[in-house]
Amino acid sequence: QVQLVETGGGLVQAGGSLRLSCALSGRPFSTYAMGWFRQVPGKEREIVAAIHWVVVSTYYSTYYADSVKGRFTISRDNAKKTVFLQMDSLKPEDTAVYYCTADPAFSKVIAGTSAHWGQGTQATVSS
């Protein structure tokens, strides 16, 4: 059974950085697309970023929400079975609970219909 454990949330001032990590156990990490979603109270969960498990010309395909392009970077370390979300130039509107998700199908990760989800980690950006 797949388990996802997120770490790295916390409180940071606007303009600062946080790095989220998500470790997968229970299945071969290298064949799972991974993603990050976020949710604030009263709103639907929204995608932040996703990364494929397929390598194309030495890099993994990635997807970013427009609101985080140029500020957030998703990456993966197959040896550590971990996906990372580097969040720079943070804004108060980035405050949310961030969820890690995994699925063999990249399309499902982007759509938010993945089979597996973590418990979430809170990231708070103060103004």
How far apart lie the N and C ends? 40 Å
Total strand count, please?
Answer: 11
Label the overall shape: globular
Q: What average pLDDT do the residues reach?
A: 95
Strand content: over 45%
> What is the ordering of alpha helices and beta strands?
EEEEEEEEEHEE
Rg on CA atoms, Å: 14 Å
Q: Helical stretch count?
A: 1
Given helix and strand content, the structural type is: mainly beta
Low-confidence stretches at least 5 residues in length (pLDDT < 50)? none
| Sheet with most strands | 7 strands, mixed
| Residues in helices, as a percent range | under 10%
Explain what this protein looks like in three dimensions.
It is a single chain. The chain has 127 residues and is mostly beta strands. It has 1 helix and 11 strands; from the N terminus they run E-E-E-E-E-E-E-E-E-H-E-E. It has one helix spanning 106-111; strands at 3-7, 10-13, 18-25, 33-39, 46-56, 59-64, 72-77, 82-87, 96-103, 116-117, 121-126. The strands form 2 sheets. Strands 2, 4, 5, 6, 9, 10 and 11 form a 7-stranded mixed beta sheet that branches. It has a 4-stranded antiparallel beta sheet with strand order 1-3-8-7, with no helix packed on it. Strand 7 (72-77) and strand 8 form a beta hairpin. It is globular and about 40 Å long.
